[in-house]
Amino acid sequence: MKGVLKKEMLRTRVNPEQPALEVVNLTKHFEINGTAKSVLHKITFNAGVGEMICITGRSGCGKTTLLNILAGFLKPSAGTIMVNSEPVRKPGPDRCVVFQEDTLFPWLTVRENIAFGLKGRTKNKGYLSKEVDRFLSLVGLREFQHYLPREISGGMKQRVAIARVLILQPQVLLMDEPFASLDYHTRREMQDLLVTVWRELGQTIIFVTHDLDEAITLADRIVVMERGSGYIRQELAVPLPRPRKAEQTEYLFFRRKLYEFL
Amino acid sequence: MEQLKKGSRLHALLPWIIPGALVLAWVMVSYTELIPHYLLPNPLKIIKTGSAYVFDNTANSPYAGRFLSDARASLTRVFFGFFCATLFGLPLGILSGRLAVVNRLLNTFINGLRAVPGITWLPLAMVWFGIGIKTTVFLVALAAFFPIYLNAAAGARQINAQLLQAGAMMGVGRLRGSLSILLPGSMPHIMTGLRLGLGISWAYLVLGELTGVPNGLGAVIMDARMLGRGDMIIVGMVLIAIVGRMSDGLLVKVLRGCFKSARRMT
Questions:
Q1: Do A99 and B166 touch (CB under 8 A)?
Q2: Is the minimum CB–CB distance between A117 and chain B shorter than 8 Å?
Q3: Among the residues of chain B, which ranges form H helices?
Q4: For A136, A235, B126, B130, which has the most beta carbons within 10 A of its beta carbon?
Q5: Which ipTM did the prediction report?
C-alpha cells in the first residue's frame, strides 16, 4: 500500500490542501403539503484542486439535489458553498454540469454544440475553431463533428456533453450520473475516457453515482451519503493507482468496505 | 391501419379517384344541363376564363389579364397583416410561455378577445378604417395573431428546462439564452403557429376584400358574384387556394433558410 500511495502523490496537480470547492453545513428542505421535508442535513466536505470526488448513496439520499445546489440550480435552505473562496449564488461557467440525460441542443451539430459556450466568450474565430478542434479530438469525435445529436449514440452524446463544458475550463466539473443510462461496455469506455481527460486537464470533479464500482474506479475520495436523512455517512479515500482493475485485491477491499457503509 | 403497398398502381391512383369522379360528374351534369350554367358553370368555360384572367392582356373581357395586379394587391395585404401578427404574437407568446407574470397579465385578456368571432370585427373595422387596405390588414392581423401567439407560448412552455439550465451553467445570459436556446428550442411550435396564422390570413383577406375594394383576389370573387359570373368565382377560389398554398411553401422555405432549428428539427 505504501508504494501505491507514493505513486499517487507523484501524479500531479492534485492538491487536496488547496480547496477548489468548500461546502459547509449545507442544508435543504422542501415544503411538501405544508410540512418541511429535510433532504440534505448539514453537509460538509471539501474538494481539493484537481481532486476527483465521487458522491454515492442509495436512491433518495439527496445526491442529485446536492449537485443541483452546487450547480446553482437550486437554492440551499442554509449553509454555504465556496468555489475558489468565492460564494456560489447562481449557475455559472466556473461550475459546469454534465447531466444524466441528453441535454445537447438538438438543432446544433456536434461541433456547434461544443463551440456553444465558448462562442459567447470570444470574438476570435480562429481561436474558437482551434479550441473546438482540440476538444473534438480529446473526446475522439472528429469524424462525427458535423452530425446532429439525434444521429449519434448515447455514449457519443455524453462525450459531446463533456467536451462542451471542458472547453470552458471550469474550476469544478459537476457530473450527475452521466454514464448511468449507457450500456456496460460504453460505460467502462467513458470512465477510461474521463480519467484520461481529467489527467490531461486536471479539473476538480464532483461525480455523483449510485454505482459502487464506478465510484471505486474513478474517485480519489468517496463521499457516502445516508439514505433518507441526507447527511454524510462516511468519507473514504481511495489511494489506488490508475487504471484500476476490479480483480485487484485492494479494489475488492474497498468494494467490501463501501458495501458495508451502504 | 391496414397497410397499402407503396409504389403499386393502386397506391398511386387512390387519391385521385374521388376528385376525378367528381369532375367527371360535373362535366356530365353540365353537358346535360341538369343544373343550369349560372349555378354550376361548365368546367371548360372555367378553364377558359381562368386562362384569360391570368394570361390574356388584350382586355377582351372585364377580367382579362387582371390576375397579376389582383394578386399583388392581395399579397400586400396578407403580408402586412401577417407581419403585424408575427411582430406582436411571437414575442408576446414566448414571453407568456416563460414568465408567469406575463402569462397572468395576458391570458385572460387574449382568451377573451379570442372568443369574439373574427368576422364580427368587420363592421367595427369598417367604421374605424373605412373601406380599403387598412380594414383588411387589421382583420388579417387580428386573426393571424392568435395561432401565432398560442403556439409560440406552447413552444416556450414545453421547452426542456434542462436545455435552459445547460445554457445557464455555460454562462449564457438572458438575451443570448432567449435568442440561441429559447427561440430555436421552440421552433417546431413557432413554425406551426406561423403556418396556421398564414393560412388564416388568406381566409380573412377574402373577408376584408368582400367589402368593396376595387382589386384583390377576394374582390374579384365578390365582383363576379354581382355580375353573375359563376365561372369567375370558381377561378378566384382556385387561384386563392394555389397562391395560399404557394405562400405556405415559401414561408417554410424562408424559415428553413434563416434558422438552423427550422431546418434540422422540422
A1: yes
A2: yes
A3: 9-32, 43-55, 67-98, 100-115, 121-129, 133-158, 161-169, 174-177, 183-185, 187-209, 217-226, 230-258, 260-265
A4: A136
A5: 0.85
